[in-house]
Design brief:
The chain is mainly alpha-helical. The protein has a single domain, classed as Response regulator (Rossmann fold, 3-Layer(aba) Sandwich), CATH 3.40.50. Strands 1-2 form a two-stranded parallel ribbon. Strand 1, helix 2 and strand 2 form a beta-alpha-beta unit. The radius of gyration is 12 Å and the shape is flat.
């Protein structure tokens, strides 16, 4: 199962689960595909640490979870 298949199954099982894709594959068609499938973000490796944390915080806020990511 690839990451997109995992994303699809997560969407079916738990629609409120936020998906952040982190990949070394900076393919524009892949980016469009996962974002169209409602991923919260598409990041490429190596990613900016501060950007990654901001996106994780956004995912937590959008699910109503008040947990803060640990450094």
């Amino acid at each position: 199962m690839d990451g997109f298949e995992v994303q699809s199954q997560l969407r079916d099982i738990s629609p409120s689960t936020r998906v952040i894709v982190l990949t070394a594959n900076d393919d524009p068609s892949l980016r469009a595909k996962v974002l169209k499938a409602e991923a919260l973000a598409f990041l490429t490796k190596p990613c900016n640490y501060d950007e990654f944390l901001a996106i994780v915080q956004c995912a937590l806020v959008s699910t109503g979870n008040n947990l803060m990511p640990r450094l």
